[in-house]
């Protein structure tokens, strides 16, 4: 009975407390607000009055804290604005072109052209200067070069030598024919373009070399993306095209190394020095770096480095290799690509790390593509008849030379004419690698801005025409292309 009375009294006390709980909460809230106003809002008001009313010592003190337009904060904000504009425009245009069954790179370059002097700069110069002043563009260019170096490392690391097994002679014939014929046509075309379109540092020989190289290249990364999108990467036709593009890229990098050395006005002794250092660089990669990476990766599951440590090691190694080739006299991308080829294959840990690195390049690489568009001024030459004719000529020579040479080589290897034509169309795709070559040409002042713009147009046209022509070839098959997805055409050894 006593317990019941005690519980009743306690319940009444609880009810009284809960009933007064609302008043208690109100009092606590009022107390909090009064303290907040006293300790936060009142000092904030005093700060505003002092700053606005000159209470810190007059006009001199007020003017001394005013940021200058060229201050660090201003530069950082302009840089961030430019990067944001580039990324958003590149993503929107890339997604739009992807919906049209085109590689994202085409849309990203077009985004740069729209933001650059060709369109925004011509229609609204004030907005173009606000977004992309010269000082900010130089910072964007440095960041884009970092993205390009890392991308070329990933491209080298993802090369699959197994694609060449059993088709080595065919692949070498297709790839080298696709380099030699367009290269020769470019060299033959160069005398008619040299006086009008060569850069300030170009000699007839270096101009001819770079023009021939620009017309003969195939973009391995973009080609690989097209094959994956079309589910052709694992069929014989796709493997032949991808293997040929891989060999062609290696050949092109070797030619590029020689052309860069010549563009630097290197003497024969200097050229031999560059060649000797390049051979030493390759030997170190093959004999030292590759075995070390193989041991590290194979030990990764037991005592090897963590994913984060391997990520830092690979990125650091790619940047060091790029720096080494830059000092040797080659371009930085050559070192990054070569270091990528030294990375061992078949490791799950390595696949995870490369996946993270690819995610990073998804952020950085569009800066390079959009920067190419920003540097492309379609009105630089006023599109005089000579400029328009030069653009049409390089497009015609590049397309005809690549299609004819690689298609004929594939047909000689035993492919039916539709498959041989498809190989020619795939090898005609330029894209990323072409833009790297053009960027180097412009950096070395081997070509002028008008021809640079015309060659960018050629790169866009040859990349954009790949998927539509492949669709036409597929529809022209009697079976609608079904047999191609089974095992492809037979290729007999040459």
Automatic annotation (TrEMBL):
Residues 14-23 have a biased composition (Gly residues). It is a multi-pass membrane protein. The chain crosses the membrane at residues 35-56, 76-98, 105-124, 130-156, 168-187, 207-228, 240-262, 274-297, 309-334, 354-374, 386-405. It comes from the Bacteria. Keywords: Ion transport, Membrane, Transmembrane, Transmembrane helix, Transport. InterPro entries: Cation/H_exchanger_TM, CPA2_transporter, Na+/solute_symporter_sf. Residues 86-470 form the Cation/H+ exchanger transmembrane domain. It is found in: Membrane. Residues 1-23 are annotated as: Disordered. This is Cation:proton antiporter. It comes from Actinomadura chokoriensis.
């Amino acid at each position: 009975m006593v317990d019941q009375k005690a519980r009743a009294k306690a319940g009444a006390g609880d009810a009284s407390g809960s009933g007064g709980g609302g008043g208690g909460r109100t009092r606590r809230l009022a107390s909090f607000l009064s303290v907040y106003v006293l300790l936060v809002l009142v000092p904030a008001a005093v700060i505003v009055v002092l700053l606005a009313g000159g209470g810190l010592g007059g006009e001199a003190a007020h003017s001394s804290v005013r940021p200058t337009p060229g201050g660090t904060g201003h530069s950082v904000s302009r840089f961030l604005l430019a990067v944001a504009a580039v990324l958003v425009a590149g993503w929107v245009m890339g997604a739009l072109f992807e919906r049209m069954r085109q590689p994202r790179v085409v849309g990203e370059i077009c985004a740069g052209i729209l933001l650059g002097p060709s369109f925004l700069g011509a229609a609204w110069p004030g907005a173009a200067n606000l977004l992309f002043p010269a000082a900010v563009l130089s910072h964007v260019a440095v960041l884009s070069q970092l993205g390009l170096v890392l991308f070329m490392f990933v491209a080298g690391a993802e090369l699959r030598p197994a694609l060449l097994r059993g088709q080595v002679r065919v692949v070498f014939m297709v790839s080298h024919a696709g380099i030699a014929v367009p290269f020769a046509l470019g060299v033959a075309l160069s005398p008619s373009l040299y006086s009008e379109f060569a850069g300030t540092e170009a000699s007839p020989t270096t101009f001819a070399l770079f023009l021939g190289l620009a017309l003969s290249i195939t973009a391995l990364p973009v080609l690989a993306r097209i094959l994956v999108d079309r589910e052709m990467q694992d069929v014989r036709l796709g493997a032949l095209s991808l293997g040929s593009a891989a060999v062609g890229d290696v050949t092109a990098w070797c030619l590029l190394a020689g052309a860069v050395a010549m563009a630097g006005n290197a003497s024969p002794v200097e050229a031999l020095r560059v060649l000797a250092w390049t051979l030493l660089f390759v030997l170190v990669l093959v004999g030292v770096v590759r075995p070390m990476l193989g041991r590290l990766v194979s030990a990764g599951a037991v005592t090897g480095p963590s994913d984060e440590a391997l990520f830092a090691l690979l990125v650091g190694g790619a940047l060091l290799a790029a720096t080494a080739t830059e000092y040797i006299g080659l371009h930085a991308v050559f070192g990054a690509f070569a270091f990528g080829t030294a990375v061992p294959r078949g490791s799950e840990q390595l696949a995870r790390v490369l996946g993270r690195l690819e995610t990073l390049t998804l952020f950085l690489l569009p800066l390079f593509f959009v920067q190419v568009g920003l540097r492309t001024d379609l009105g630089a030459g006023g599109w005089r008849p000579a400029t328009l004719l030069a653009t049409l000529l390089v497009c015609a020579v590049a397309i005809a030379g690549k299609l004819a040479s690689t298609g004929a080589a594939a047909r000689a290897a035993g492919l039916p004419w539709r498959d041989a034509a498809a190989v020619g169309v795939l090898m005609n795709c330029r894209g990323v690698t072409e833009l790297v070559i053009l960027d180097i040409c412009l950096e070395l002042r081997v070509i002028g801005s008008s021809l640079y713009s015309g060659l960018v147009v050629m790169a866009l046209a040859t990349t954009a025409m790949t998927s539509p022509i492949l669709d036409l070839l597929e529809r022209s098959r009697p079976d609608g292309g079904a047999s191609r997805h089974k095992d492809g055409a037979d290729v007999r050894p040459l």
